[in-house]
Structure formats: C-alpha cells, structure tokens
Amino acid sequence: MTDPFVTGSHDDVAASPTGRRPRVVLGVSGGIAAYKACELLRRFTESGHDVTVVPTAAALEFVGAPTWAALSGKPVATDVWTGVHAVPHVRIGQDADLVVVAPATADLVAKAAHGLADDLLTNTLLTVRCPVVFAPAMHTEMWEHPATVANVATLRARGVIVVEPDEGRLTGKDTGKGRLPDPAEIFELAVDVLNRDGAELDLAGRRVVVSAGGTREYLDPVRFLGNRSSGLQGYALARTAAARGAEVTLVAANVSLPDPAGVKVVAVSTTAELRDAVVAATATADAVVMAAAPADFRPTSVSDAKIKKSDDGSAPSIELVQNPDILKQISHDRARPGQVIVGFAAETGDASSSVRELAVAKLARKGCDLLVVNDVSGGAVFGSPDNEAVILSTSGEARQVPRGSKGALAHAIWDQVLTRLH
Ligand code: CTP
C-alpha cells in the first residue's frame, strides 16, 4: 500500500558521491516563518534528498507534525523520549550530510551557541559533524540585540553558516531586518554547501563585494542605453561566496533575480551609482569581483522631459561621454593591502588580435589581479545558465574552466581568489 503521506517525488534522486540520497536534517524552531520551511522541505524532497524534519515543540504550535510527515514522507521526530531504543538524539545527527535550521529563532541561536541540549533539535546540533546552515528569522530588535549578535558571532566562528535575514515586512505591521530569506534561495545555498561535500568554509571571516547586471544610462525619463547582462554570473558568485562562509555585498544593476539568501544587496541603475556603491563597499573588502557590465558611455545630458520626435522625419543625435572605469579605479586605489580584485572580460577577438591577446592586454590595463575571460563571439553567454572561461592571473597563469554551470565557474573563481588571499 502506498503511504498517503508521501508526496515528494523520490525517484529523481540527487546522486551523492556515495551513491545514496543526501541526508538532510531540517530543524524548525518556533517562529511564524515555520510555514515557509514547508516550501524548503518540498524543494529538498522533490530534488531527491532524504529529509528528516526535527521541529521544536514551539515549531509544532505553528505547523503540526502531520504536515512535516506528509511533506518529508517520514515520521517526524519531535522529542528525545520517542523511540529511545534507536537513540535518535545521537543517530539523526550522526547520519546527516547537512543540517539546515530554518527558521532559527533567537532562542535556538542562543541555545546552539552555548551548547545547550534540552530537546531533540539541540541534541542533534551537538552530535552533527556535517555542515550546518542557520537561517534566522526574528524581529529586528531581537536580531540586533547584543546577546544575539554575540551568539551569531560564536556560531560563525565555529564554522556554522548563519544566513543574514532579509529586510522587509515582519509578522505585524512593522518592517525591518529579520525576515526569513526566500525558501528557494535558502535551498540554493544549502545545495551549494552540500555539493561541496564537507569542504571547509574557506571564505569564513572574509568580506567580499560582487557587482552584477548591466547599467543603464538614461536619455530621458523613459529611455536608456543598456546592455544584455542578466546578472546570473554575479548572482552565482554572491551565492557561492555566501555558501563558503563569506560576508557578501552584491551591488546589482537592473537585475530581476531573487536576492541570494544571506547576501546584502545594493540596487543601482547607472554606472555612476554602481561606482559609488562598489567603492563604498570595497573600503572594507578582502576581495572584489566586478562581474557587472557597466555602460562605458552615457549621454552628455539627460532630458528632463520625454524627447519627442519631429515631424520632418529627422532623428536627434546623441552625444556621449565616457563613464568612469570602476575596475581600473579600485585596482589602482587599492583600499586595503592584500585586497584581491577580479575583473571580467567579454571579448570577441578582431582582425588583428585574438581573444587571449586582448585579454592579456586588458589585465595589464585594468591593473586587477585576475581576469575572467569569456569568448562571447555569437553572444553565447548572455542569459545562459552555463558559462566557460579562462582565468588569467598577473603571474601569467591561464586556468581553463570547462563549460559548466555559472555556479561551477563561480567556485573556480573563488578558489583562485583564495590562493591569492593566503
Ligand atoms: N568595467 C568597469 N567600469 C567600466 C567598464 C567596465 O569596472 N566603466 C569592468 C567590468 O565590470 C569588467 C571589466 O571592467 O570586470 C572589463 O569590462 P569590459 O567591458 O570588457 O572592458 P572595457 O574596459 O569596457 O573594455 P572594452 O573597451 O574592451 O569594452
């Protein structure tokens, strides 16, 4: 007989290196955002993960055990006194490949930071040796309270990934920082952590800045000069850096993608705004990756009113001036010693120079440490989920990254950044 509670498709198993389904423990603590963890759970089960849900007693006040059982296809363990013969408080943690706690309340963050173990979830957190991701959700005052700040710092220092909450509408009428990030984004981050197969959080304690998207230069209130950059590569860089433990600022120019979980997103539109935001964030950064496509030129003047066409069929000419070169500026100014700066180059090659020759010249001209070179003959990269590139370094190395996901290229870039940071 089929189990009526099993709704997740377990056929599309996400292969793990050991050939079995990756085991995820989903800890849920007692906040209103517990209902969003149902969506997270669905994403895990539907992509073939074996999920054990461990809700706290308070979480069950918000979402009941039947919901967790139905969505995970498994009985739900809620306390240490059920099934004692199987020693669940130890076994669940020992078997896990990844633990995600979403939402994590201030109380749970405090207990985890201090090693308290008074229920099944806190016991499990003490027994696990796999990566742990916390996605806190609470009111702004609780998040900013010195006790919570210290507890979060303790967890991070121990290698736990604590995702920054989103800003926005909270439970009541108030708004502020403390919302649980979009479950789809928590899922992406969690899968990225899992796919690294226990690799250490090698960017923990590092601050990184990533720019993404394409800037717009306005002619009048409704028209602009822009480009085809989707922001996908920059967003992949931000997400993967967060999954490796970095504190990430993402300066996004006109990107219509959801904010990656735990990443501070600064929205900009023009190249001048992009420069100001990047320069400000760069002051305290260990690494900066300029994945954005800033417009090189802007109209000399912006009309306050919509430009009208004339009856005689003539077209206006648009006079342009050059924009600041942000990559060049931050590479030459070097806000901090040892800062690693990475540029991108989208090249097509021309009659006199190959893509590689143009890229080598650009690396020298910009003054950055690494240059990620895409051959865009035919517009191959824009909007595509895949990418391939060569990472050139000032020491003359050229590392070929074969065609793969933009996430895979992002990891390869962070690997190169790390060797330089060391
Ligand atoms: N870039 C920048 N500021 C600009 C233009 C580009 O910081 N005004 C950065 C991009 O984010 C990218 C790198 O410079 O990391 C190279 O961008 P690209 O458009 O290839 O370089 P350009 O200097 O515009 O060179 P080209 O004349 O070949 O277009």
What can you tell me about this protein's structure?
The structure is a single chain. This protein has 14 helices and 19 strands. 46% of the residues are buried. It is elongated and about 85 Å long. The chain has two domains: 23-195, Flavin prenyltransferase-like (Rossmann fold), CATH 3.40.50.1950; 207-421, 3-Layer(aba) Sandwich (Rossmann fold), CATH 3.40.50. Strands 12-11-8-13-16-17-18-19 form an eight-stranded mixed beta sheet, sandwiched between helices. A five-stranded parallel beta sheet has the order 2-1-3-4-5, with helices on both faces. A two-stranded antiparallel ribbon has the order 6-7. It has helices spanning 34-46, 57-62, 65-72, 88-95, 106-114, 120-127, 140-144, 146-157, 183-195, 232-243, 271-282, 326-333, 355-366, 406-421; strands at residues 23-28, 50-55, 98-104, 132-136, 161-162, 166-169, 175-179, 207-213, 217-218, 224-225, 247-253, 264-268, 287-290, 297-299, 320-322, 340-347, 370-375, 386-393, 398-405. The chain is an alpha/beta fold and 422 residues long. Bound molecules: cytidine-5'-triphosphate. Cytidine-5'-triphosphate is lined by residues 271, 290, 292, 294, 296, 323, 325-327, 343-346.
